Amino acid sequence: MMQKAWMVVAIVAMSVAGAAGRAAAQAPAGAGSTGADGPTLHAPHSYNPIKWVKKDAKTGGDWHDANSSLNKNLTAKLQGAGVLAANTNIAEACGTFKVLSDCLAGLHASHSLTLDFNCVRFDMTAVQSGADISGCKAPKGDKGASLNKTIQLLKPSADAKAEAKSAEKQASEDLKESGS
Predict the structure, then answer these.
(1) Does the residue 102 lie in any domain?
(2) Which one of 49, 96, 106, 175 has the lowest number of neighbouring Cβ atoms within 10 Å?
(3) Residue 15 lies in a domain
């Protein structure tokens, strides 16, 4: 019993000594203060992980501008390939999309599967544009569906996963080639 008590006392003493040593090694209290010993060992940076992520200055709304170089480059490329109608530009076709690459993938999928792009756009964004969508199958609920689900809905016989992957790859290549 006596030996057990000495063990407890020794463990408590080591804990107290360790805490005192750590406290002595820390810099003086106060935000950003430096002691007589000089600056602290810690670099000043935020512990908030949100601030660690570098934010891009571009808002992504550049492609909504019909006069932007990205819009002009993509419009010319896609019209030349027959993916985009001759009387339409990217800003008009993709205005309801939040992300340009989603719209481009939708354009490629509708072109390769001969789907009505107005239906694809409506199914993916759940936003009604001025186009006629009366013949379109809509996803359940009031939210847009992924390209994969849109293809499954509009063309059940197609391999939706492979077609969506192919369209997304083409969209990525379009963006790279257009300087985005």
Answers:
(1) yes
(2) 49
(3) no
Is the pLDDT at 177 greater than 90? The verdict is: no
Which residues have CB under 8 Å from 85's CB, separation 6+? Answer: 79, 93
- CA count, 13 A, side-chain hemisphere, 73: 13
Rounded to whole angstroms, the Cα distance separating 21 from 91 reads: 64
What is the amino acid identity at position 85?
Answer: A
Closest CA to 31 of 20, 21, 42, 19: 42
Q: Residue 154's closest CA among 169, 138, 130?
A: 138
The pTM is what?
0.63
Looking at the structure of the chain, the number of domains it has is 1
C-alpha–C-alpha distance, residues 70 and 91, integer Å: 10
Contact between 96 and 125 (Cβ < 8 Å)? yes
Question: How would DSSP label each residue in 125-178?
Answer: H----SS--TTPPPPSSSS---HHHHHHHH-TTS-HHHHHHHHHHHHHHHHHHT
- pLDDT tens for 140-158 read 877 889 999 999 999 999 9
Q: With contact defined as beta carbons under 8 Å apart, do 56 and 62 qualify?
A: no
**Phi and psi at residue 6, to the nearest 5°:** -65, -35
What distances in angstroms separate CA 155 from CA 77, 120, 178, 179, one per listed residue?
26, 11, 30, 32
